[in-house]
Amino acid sequence: MLNLFFPEKTTVIVGLEIGTAKVAAVVGEVTDSGGVNVIGIGQCPSRGVRKGEVVNSDLAAEDVRNAIVEAEKSADVEIASVYLSVTGGHLTSLNTHGVFTAASDDHEISQPDVTEVLANAKVFNRPSENTVLHAIRQHFTLNGQAAITDPIGMLGGKLELDMHVVHGVTTRLQNPVRVVKGLNLEVEELVFSGLASSLALLDNEQKQMGVLVVDFGAGTTEYVVYADGVIKHTGILAVGGDHVTNDLSFGLRMAPARAGLLKREHGAATIEGAAGQTLTLTSENGFPDRRVNLEHLRRIMVARLDETLQLIDEDIGEKGFHDQLRAGVCLCGGGARIRGIEKLAEEVFDLPATLGRANAVGGLRSATDDPELATAVGLVKYGAIRQKGQRRVGLVGKLKHLAGSLGIF
Amino acid sequence: MTSTETTPTAAPVKKQLTIKVFGVGGCGGNVVAHISHEGFAGAQLIVLNTDSQALAQIPLPYKFNLGLKLNGGLGAGGDPERGRAAAEEDETRLRELCTGVDMVFICAGLGGGTGTGAGPVLARVAKECGALSLAFVTLPFDCEGPKRMRQARQGLEEFKAAADGVICLPNQKVFKLIDENTSVIETFSTTNELLAQGVRGIWQLVTRPGFINLDFADLCAVVRDRHSESSFASAEATGPHRAKEVVEKLMANPLLDGGAALGEADALLVSLMGGPGLTMAEVNRVMEQINRQTDNAHLIMGAAIEEALGDRMTVTLVASRKRSHAADLPKDTELEPVSKLETAPGARGGSDFDLLGAAIATKPVTRTAAAQAEPERVVVAVAETATDVAAPAPVAASRSWRSRKKTKVAHPELRLETVTKGPFEHSEPTLRNGEDLDVPTFVRRGMPMN
Ligand SMILES: Nc1nc2c(ncn2[C@@H]2O[C@H](COP(=O)(O)OP(=O)(O)OP(=O)(O)O)[C@@H](O)[C@H]2O)c(=O)[nH]1
Ligand SMILES: [Mg+2]
């Protein structure tokens, strides 16, 4: 493999998602030129997770082990550490604002001033049991001049900083970490899974134009808003494909497993063409054993999907992002596989919607084309960005890293 | 209070009753839309909701958006307080709508915000305007979670306090009646259909030509100010043993809790319909059997001939029970139904009781409205001294519902267990604006059925 020939030059990065439906480990390598290639995948159905959070550590550990072993085989590497995605209804996000005022207006902004404004922006009300997961720099404003990326060396008396912060309940963030550590794996960093997905799907142009990424998972749905090249907003709804299945299971009166199967085979985000149609289901022995009204199936599904998208729409609408999303909506996650979901999203958001592909990375097509692997692939991308930043640590200095690394998002 | 001025013994003046049917909230709107589907002319159907989108989907002309100022047309988000506040904001308007009305039906699904919160306000306003108010409500499915159920129960209590009578048809109970090949969406339409039948049944009882004032007064006498809660069921049978079968089916109906609802009832309203072949003996047989199931219940009965029924016979029954078997009403708890009835002193004098013969005739009969005036319909109202309440009388039931019911009754519980246990039981509920998003969306939205 490549790393045999260029052992110091390529870095292997592993993204691990302990999802509600599946555990996925994606192995990527960062090439010399800074590109990211996926070289291996390991997956395992997930049994210990509900709504994005570990509820049964033993089962989760077993599933993670299986996924990691498979990924190691597939990439022919030994995995020692992972970037781990996290999600869950306990996550909260907000935009904060920091201010630094100098004695005079012709003050030259220096590193300590940036440090101070950063510290200032990190002061916000959060429950004591919460930990900050991400504090993502958006942009500086100097004497009222907005959208400055690097103010050091510029002259000005008032330096302001806008930041996007994601925080969550410490103990709940620790649960998946404990599972991973129990398998003698190191956790490099925790990453909000919506952020990871967006990194896999988006290019810089989309981030500049403004885009909404919706990752419709089994247990949760995450969303991320980019505009002017930075993250403006993130959110999570603890609603996902499992809810669709549960609605169907209840509405059509059948076991969840069967409802899930029907969802995948006959589901769609539209009732078009379903009127008056009946499905005849066969039992395990192959005998027709019951009938299902296709229109009801679809109506139940559409109601849930529509509601979920509406809730996201309301949230981003409230914050006034609608007209900043010139690149439209980008969908990923298992829910992106539902037929007609783009059309429904277009109707709800009144924006063009597309299915996301992990364009931001190369390598195994099976990984980059799979909307369900966006998070794990994105974790690799995240790791690559972080490690690039870290490599700079020695050269440019620690503060530069602190202020700069996350700004790339 | 125009209606109470009409005494039962007054000459049957054909006063045109003013009746309004209100649907409050998403479910209420659907029920009322259902009533109109069936071509229900005569009553004014009015839909009230806080949610302007839901309102727009109801294909009826009279709609009113409650609490626009308060909620901006966005619905009450599952919060009864907001529903109540919305109705209070528009109380003047509600009062206008209820002024000069003799009878108000209020249809609502309990558990959400609007029906649960605004419904009882409307009931109170209707009563204050002098109308007889009857509420037809549903309770949520078990799967909707304890919070919604708690909210619904609270709403039910408020309805009982505000309205003259409440007929409650829990969705979960109807769910048990439906065959497994049909989806829960059909539970909605079945419940809606049953509630619609209830409304139509009472409507017919009080508006049938020839019996108008009389029966409305009777209804008032039993229902007004009783604040009762009622169960409700209907059954149909054909063939030579139909009188026996129809009662058996009725007793097997889960909506009556295996007949227990009858034993506990202190008032019963029985509406019996059959084709031209309906005989008095059959009516007696049915009533006798029902009597045997009840203890000390006040009984109102109506029988009618409907050509269209042909060989079929349908019985619809409303069993009412006062909130508590309170000590303020001395009540004989011994179970000796028939003899008890025989010795019961007559409440009001009556005539024509020979029409009913045996079991019924032994009771003091209040009124058997002009059988001679309207030959194709026999209406008999029997009154007992018994404590209270009676409620509304519905009529024919949906065929599909009844024919499936029989196959379902055997093991409904088992099936329910497996179906309603969602995967979210052990995780934190997903709450948004007070709504539990784990509850199926189509249930919370109350999918409109077309
Ligand atoms: N039978 C029947 N039940 C319904 C229907 N729609 C909703 N329900 C039930 O009624 C309850 C209340 O739902 P809604 O009527 O939609 O609620 P609402 O009164 O509009 O309240 P908000 O939407 O919170 O303002 C639900 O919990 C369901 O159990 C329906 O069409 N038929
Ligand atoms: Mg509503």
Keywords summarizing the entry:
heterodimer, A: 409 residues, alpha/beta, 6-stranded mixed β-sheet, 5-stranded mixed β-sheet, 13 helices, 19 strands, globular, B: 450 residues, Rossmann fold, 12-stranded mixed β-sheet, 18% strand, disordered N terminus, binds guanosine-5'-triphosphate, binds magnesium ion
User: What is the helical fraction of chain A, as a range of percent?
Assistant: 25-40%
CATH class of the domain at 16-174 and 325-413 in chain B: Alpha Beta
Strand content of chain B: 15-25%
The number of helices of chain A is 13
Q: Can you tell me the residue ranges of chain A where pLDDT is under 50 for at least 5 consecutive residues?
A: 1-8, 391-409
Content of β-strand of chain A: 25-35%
Within the CATH hierarchy, at the fold level, what is the topology of the domain at 16-174 and 325-413 in chain B?
Rossmann fold
Largest sheet of chain A: 6 strands, mixed
Oligomer: heterodimer
Mean pLDDT of chain A: 89
How many strand units of chain B? 14
Physical arrangement of strands within the biggest beta sheet of chain A: 11-6-1-2-3-19
Structural class of chain A: alpha/beta
Q: Identify the biggest protein-protein contact and residues per side.
A: A-B, 34 and 29 residues
Main sheet specs of chain B? 12 strands, mixed
Radius of gyration of chain A: 23 Å
Taken from the alpha-carbon principal axes, the silhouette of chain A is globular
Number of helices of chain B: 18
Q: Care to describe what's here?
A:
The complex is a heterodimer of chains A (409) and B (450). In chain A, helix 2 crosses helix 4 and helix 7 crosses helix 8. In chain A, the strands form 5 sheets. In chain A, strands 11-6-1-2-3-19 form a 6-stranded mixed sheet, sandwiched between helices. Chain A is globular, with a radius of gyration of 23 Å. Helix content of chain A is 37%, strand content 30%. By secondary structure, chain A is an alpha/beta fold. Chain B is built from 18 helices and 14 strands. Chain B has a 12-stranded mixed sheet, sandwiched between helices. A two-stranded antiparallel sheet of chain B has the order 13-14. Chain B starts with 18 loop residues before the first strand and ends in a 5-residue tail after the last helix. The N terminus of chain B is likely disordered. The complex binds guanosine-5'-triphosphate (GTP) and magnesium ion (MG). The site of magnesium ion (MG) has 7 residues of chain B, from helix 1.
